[in-house]
Amino acid sequence: MMRLRQAGDGAMLAEFSDRLDPAAVADVRALDVALNAAAPDGLIETMPCLRSLLVLHDPLRLSARRLTALLEALAGHLDEVEISAAHWIIPVCYEGEFALDLAEIAATKGMTEAEVIQRHTAATYTAIAVGSFPGLPYLGGLDPLLVLPRRVPPRLVVPAGTVAIALEMSNIYPQATPGGWNILGRTPVPLFDPGWAQPSLLSPGDGVQHRPMGREEFESWAAGFADGSRNPIERCRA
Amino acid sequence: MSLRISEPGLFSTIQDLGRVGHQRIGVPPSGALDGLALRMGNAVLGQQQNTAALEMCRVGAGMVVEAASLRFCVTGADAPVTLDGVALAPWRSHTARHGQRLHIGRIRGGAAYLCVQGGFALAPVLGSLSTYTRAGFGGFQGRRLAAGDALPLALPEAPAMPERLLPHPVAAERARPLRVLLGPHADMFTEAAIRTLLTEPYQVTNNADRLGMRLFGAPLEHLGPKEIVSDGNNTGCLQVPGDGQPIVLMPDRQTAGGYPKIATVITADLHRLGQAIPGSQLVFEAIAPEQAEVAIWRLERAVLAAIASIREIA
After folding, report:
1. What gap in Å lies between CA A140 and CA A167, rounded to an integer?
2. Is it true that domain B178-301 has CATH number 2.40.100.10?
3. Residues 263-282 of B with CB under 8 A from A
4. Digit-coded pLDDT (tens) for A83-114
5. A contact residues 60-79, partner B, Cβ 8 Å cutoff
6. Is the pTM of this model over 0.80?
7. Scanning every residue of chain A, which has its alpha carbon at the shortest distance from the alpha carbon of B288?
8. Helix, strand, or coil here: A115?
């Protein structure tokens, strides 16, 4: 069921659940596609998030009342919306100082480190949302046995490329920022560059898998991205 | 030709009216804190209202004109403006010659704008010249200005034309409450919390920047959970973490957040919100969605009237 919450006079939240829930993720995605296809005059942009779609609109051109009517009409036909998604394989080095919390996670979960890595790479993830920071994917589909709370207090700096887990999700930090997620490893793949034709490697709805990579391969990939000889889209498309 | 920065001010960045269409990949809108002041400055100069300008927060910048001549207009919160030490009036155009020193002093509000005729010769990033310092892109090298920076100007000299004046700027009306629509998560707060928000003043703390402003006042009590599974953010929303003290989100905010939002400042009052500074007392008034629609129509009508009133100085 969709619930509309007005978020000021220029925004509407179409909420499908109060929890992380795969059905809600699918509904958000379908409504996002349908609304952007309808492209009403005055629609500014949409932001799919974990359980809701934020719709930003120009109140001078698209009133809340008209937007509400349109969203309600579209919500009745979400099953019919055709959705396409890209798929990516993003390698992760789970070694040494890249894997800051791996030993602790293994101990907390009563697993070996190898089993933690195996469970993290076996899952197929969906980028439920890309946000809070440019290019940062919230990846749903984490193995339920790896679910953990966030770290309190958060770390002041988490390096770019860090792959980390918290709650029922995995993520990748595109740039060094503060962060409270539990760190498993690091990818050499750059996720965001405002100069790329498509500035974020991952778009909401994309599928992602991880594969383990050794330190040597990590360094070789990192060098290739740094000197421009490697292209993340070509290297990572599944 | 450029503007050579001698004193950068407290937080000076290039801003236009913001970056549209990239929130879905985590890029916030950025853009002028007081978009109305930016639009007016550009209107005085007879150019596109979205032309990027220099936004200065709380303390203005000093610079030397390194072009044959430059026409400019300062708008926004009141601030002393001098050219080679001679005081100049804001909300009207002036022309500086090569080598003259332009200085904007302490700003009595959140932000002042230096609009220049022809704009700055900078490349847009994701469709906008707005600076987003947190990710380091847009504007001038993705950062706030530093002493020694040379801001490239688009025009080598000011076109010959009379100076122009905006006689009656649209007022920021500091004393009037900020109008909000309750929600999107007003139902996650007690009735007492809603009443408190709409009756008690909230003071802007020192923890205030282009991302958001932490407020301090009577705590607002959550009805149930103090966190939500994240959803999209909107500029002007008041999110309330577990301590009950609201945070107003500003244009460089994160695109998603996990705290319930009790209310959202209406579009027509965002330019007033942008002029708040640490120590400002904010009072909130809830209005109906229909009233918010009237408010934005009224504001745009006032903007059109103000633009029509711009006249040449004899």
Report:
1. 10
2. yes
3. 264-268
4. 999 999 999 999 999 999 999 999 999 999 99
5. 60, 63-64
6. yes
7. A9
8. helix
